[in-house]
Amino acid sequence: MREINLHFKTLKGGFVIGLVANNDFSSRALYELLNIFSESHGNQLEINRVQVVTMELKELIRLYVKRYGSLVPQINKLNKKISDLPCCERFLLLESEPESTKDKLAFEALLMVCNGLKSEGDDYIGNDVFSKQIEAYSMFSPRSDIRTVIGEKNKRKRKCRFCSKSVSDGARFQSVAHAIPEALGNKNIILAEECDECNSFFGDHIEPSLIEFLNIYRVTLGIKGKDGYPKVKYENGVAQFDGKHINIASRDIDEDENGNLAIKLKSNNKFIPIAFYKALCKIALSVIDKGELVNLDKTIEWLLELEHSTVELPKIGMFINHSGYSGHPKIIVMARKDDSCLSPHIVCEFRVGCYVYAFIVPFSNKDTLKYLGDEQMNVFFDMFPQFAQNNGWVYTSFDSVLEIKPTYNVKINNSESSPYKKFQQVPAAHLV
Ligand SMILES: [Zn+2]
Asked: How far is the CA of 121 from the centre of ligand 1 (A)?
């Protein structure tokens, strides 16, 4: 008897086909299936790990399922799955599920590379620094391109991650809580373990500052939110993406003799730096393994405080990744596995479009340092050199509790190669 589980890893996720060969018929079915995806070396079949979707493959699968489907029912879904894949897309075929996070990430990276979505060496995979991190940290990164629900699916059994209330304590779980605000383009990552009260508290108190800070990027990157393409009104103008063009209109536009434009946009909304920091941490705590939360009770208390209190926090790193663009906002949370080193317990990377933020979640019981000042930040960079200043990251404080109305400066170069050709200047007189 031979049993095999074939893992099909596709860009949209994947599926498993399990086959047991316990008689002549099923043995032949198994042999033929392997034959479709393999090369023969003498009398040995070797499965090609990277497969390409072709019309020929779809036809082979269709005929194969027609032949064996009635007697080996588990193969029936194969035809639907393969025929749904777009032609030319690459997928991976593995004989077992990758066991470690490192292997899993390596396969995901391989899938991206062979589909031309990432270039080789683009990632830290395979590099010594990265293996040190993988050794010391567990990683949580929910897929953002497919629907991912985090936590207990059954509403009656749910317990809120933040206030710890369950249905029997009076908590309600009626609204859909997005782990990352929907306004930033996240439709897919849903947190089941966030009660309605906490959801509206975060929505009122901390998330507006995150959305405000990223508003101008949402326009320039064309990130769709709850209400479609973004249109942001400013005190002195408006910025809008209409699906094709970015239109910015302002009463404060300066043009120099070379036709370069400097545009000032004064926000109508308030921005509180510490609320921005809290909103990022809330995203991290939404996707992290629940087991880590016992050490983050002080962080949760800080997120839920009614008035922002003054406290010194680590600086947040910002980086513009010109070669990578992620259409869906993406969060990667790394949690230190043991207490043998002084690097931070929880470290996160948050991506929106080509903007990347690196931050430490403060107040963990597992941290002995506060990561304030250069010396302590260097402990962090020793473990995570990819976030260090010498790699182009700029670190800024977001611990002020004062409300500000930010002014954004948009510069548009009048050059042939400028990506901002898309901008259209609207005369100030057209503004309402
Ligand atoms: Zn709650």
From this structure: 42
Query: Per DSSP, which regions of 209-306 are E strands?
Result: 231-234, 237-241, 246-250, 253-255, 261-266
pLDDT tens string 232-267:
899 999 988 888 778 888 888 888 888 888 888 999
Q: % helix / strand / coil in the chain, to the nearest 5?
A: 35, 25, 40
Residues lying with their CB under 5 A of ligand 1, a single-atom ion: 160, 162-163, 195, 198
> Taking a C-beta distance cutoff of 8 angstroms, is the pair 94, 50 a contact?
no
**DSSP secondary structure letter of residue 362:** P
3-state secondary structure 162-188: CCCCEHHHCCCCCCCCECCCHHHCCCC
Q: How many residues does the chain have?
A: 432
Burial of 338 (0-12, 13-18, 19+ CB in 10 A): exposed
Distance of CA 262 from the midpoint of ligand 1 (Å): 44
Closest CA to 159 of 174, 171, 176: 171
Spatial distance between the Cα atoms of 166 and 163, rounded to a whole number of angstroms: 9
Q: How far is CA 51 from CA 63, 88, 91, 94, 349, in A?
A: 18, 9, 5, 10, 31
What does the alpha-carbon distance between residue 370 and residue 46 come to, in Å, rounded to a whole number?
53
Side-chain-side CA neighbours of 165 within 13 Å: the count stands at 14
Tell how far the Cα of 83 is from the centroid of ligand 1, in angstroms.
43
**What is the C-alpha to C-alpha distance for residues 177 and 159, in angstroms, rounded to an integer?**
13
Whole-model pTM over 0.85? no
Residue type, 165: K
Which comes out higher in pLDDT, residue 206 or 128? Answer: 206
| Listed residue (97, 99, 102) closest to 127, CA to CA | 102
Contact 379, 351 (CB under 8 A): no
* Nearest CA among 228, 245, 229, 246 for reference residue 237: 246
Gap from CA of 282 to ligand 1 centroid (Å): 12
Where do we find the tokens 């899993």? Answer: 104
Task: Read off the tokens for 376.
Answer: 């302590």
* Highest mean pLDDT pick, 62-71, 102-111, 157-166: 157-166
Token pair belonging to 52: 């390409």
Sequence-separated contacts (24+) of 14-17 with Cβ below 8 Å: 14/91, 15/77, 15/81, 16/97, 17/74, 17/75, 17/77, 17/78
